[in-house]
Structure formats: C-alpha cells, structure tokens
Give the backbone structure.
Amino acid sequence: MNNEVREFRCRYCRVHNRVDRIFCVRCRRRLAELTAYDITEDDYVYPPDRDNLAALQGTEPLPSLIGRTITKARERSLRSWLSRKGTRVEPLSEIGISLRRCSEILSLEIIPETFIVASEGANALTFGREENPVLVISSSATEVLDKDEMTAVIGHELAHVKSKHLMYHTLAESLAKGAGIIGQFFGVGLLSTPIQMLLLAWYRESEVSADRASLLTVNDVNTLESLMNKLGRHANREGGASAFESISELFQTHPNLERRLDLIKEFGSSPEFRQARQKVKRRDRVARALIPICRFCGVAKPASKLFCGACGKSQL
Ligand SMILES: [Zn+2]
Ligand SMILES: [Zn+2]
Ligand SMILES: [Zn+2]
C-alpha cells in the first residue's frame, strides 16, 4: 500500500499529476487515452443531426474554408472581449467542479478554458477550435440557475465540443445573424442557398444532440425542464452590447425550447438513454484503473487494461 505510485507525468506538458486525475492540472488535457469505457458521440447523437451533418460534409470543402476563417476572426475578437470582461472559473469553484465532472462523463480530450462574463441574459456559449475550446457563461446564468441546472448548461456546451460542432456552429450563427461584418467580409454568402438551408437545419438538430448529452450528465429530465423554463424567462430581450446577443444559442424562441424539451423527454425514456447511463456508471466504477501506468509498479500500461501486465495486480 505504501509503495503505491502516487503521481505520473502529463504526456503533453510533463507536469506531475496525482494518479486519480483524468485531466492535467496544468494544461487541462486528458492524461490517458480514451477507452471502450468512455462515452462516444454515438451514445447520445440525435439521428437527424448525424444525417444533416453527413449531408453538410458532402458539400465540402467550401464550408470549411469559410468556416475556419470566420472561426479564427471570431476567436480573436471574443478572446479580446474576454481579456477585458471575463473572469476565469477556478478549478475548485462549484462551476469548476461541475465542469470537470461533465468533461469526465462526456470523455472530452480537454477541459475548455472557462470564463464568467457580466451579462443580462442567462446564457452560455462555446467558441474556438476543438483542440482548445473556450466556454463562456453569463453572470446572469450563475445567478438564476441552481447547481444542477448549471451542470446541464455545461453538459450541453461540452457536447458541442465533444461532437466537433464548433466550426459549423460559427458558420450557422454568422448566417443567422445576417452574416455581419465578419461574415460578409469572409463570404458566408458565398455558400449556395441549399448549403445555407442545410446548415441552418443541421444547427437546429445539433442542439438536440447537445440536449441529450446534457441529460446524460444530470440524469434528470426535471432539471432540463426547469432549465428550459428559466432560459425562456431570462432571455436577454432588451438587446444591448452583450456578445451573447448576436451569437446566442441556448435561449431561443419558446416554440423551439418546447420542441427541445419534448425531445429530451423522449430520449430520457428510451433504451438508448438507459444504456448510455449504464456506460457512465460502468466507467465510474473502473475509473481508477483507466490510467496510463500501473498504480503499484509504475510501469506503463494501456489505459483500458484493468490488470497490470508487469506485476499482475488488479488496478481496481
Ligand atoms: Zn499537462
Ligand atoms: Zn447549443
Ligand atoms: Zn504493475
């Protein structure tokens, strides 16, 4: 017992981490590779999202060319906004803990950098590239949402990261807000009308996948229901100078929220949901074994192996 290995190095930044950690304390990246125990997008994806996305990918390379340019420009402007207005979420704060837990459940590659920004509407958004995503939560959301509802919001946003939605999302949002200066400049209007329609149709369905993943993290339909009600009530209707206003996504029109809630309930009572939740529980049970070294002899091992090949000890 006394000889147990207590720390190992992050394969990216080389910092030492405790053996019970899933994400690096410094670079926030996943310390061990993903295993068959981890949640995949298939565990929660809404089929119309997958179908529309496949159709959209069939129209490449133009959407990606434009999308990458817009993503870069938007990341620059949002990062500069955050450097002035954002407060970084501390890892040990209530939100920081929810964030880590949702990242574990959804088996992300990296915990997004996360900020709180003063804003009227209860909202959240994710931007950037999947390798280095940024999550922003409005101060109003932190005031009106309870802990579980906040976890649901975080789960929703992280699902967009897990599902690699960010670039197409940025494109769809530029389109939805009439392209804006950035969009016009970089040519979101260059996309043909059928591609534009497809993009907006996909966007709507991608929200349903994110809601499903959100339910997976909180495991309670009532939490999603109260969240949807609050988002409807606390939407930022007055407008104003908030960056959320133009790129808002979580709170949308009421009929849309109602449709989303119906679909969440449907998923919540499906065998797919039960299976996915079982997967979450199974992963939790073996989590301490899913590290890249043996806890006893320190020899490298595949994360998925529950026994050490060198010393033969069970890692559980
Ligand atoms: Zn690291
Ligand atoms: Zn969303
Ligand atoms: Zn060993």
Remarks:
- Residues 294, 296-297, 299, 308, 310-311, 313 surround zinc ion (ligand 3) (CB under 6 Å).
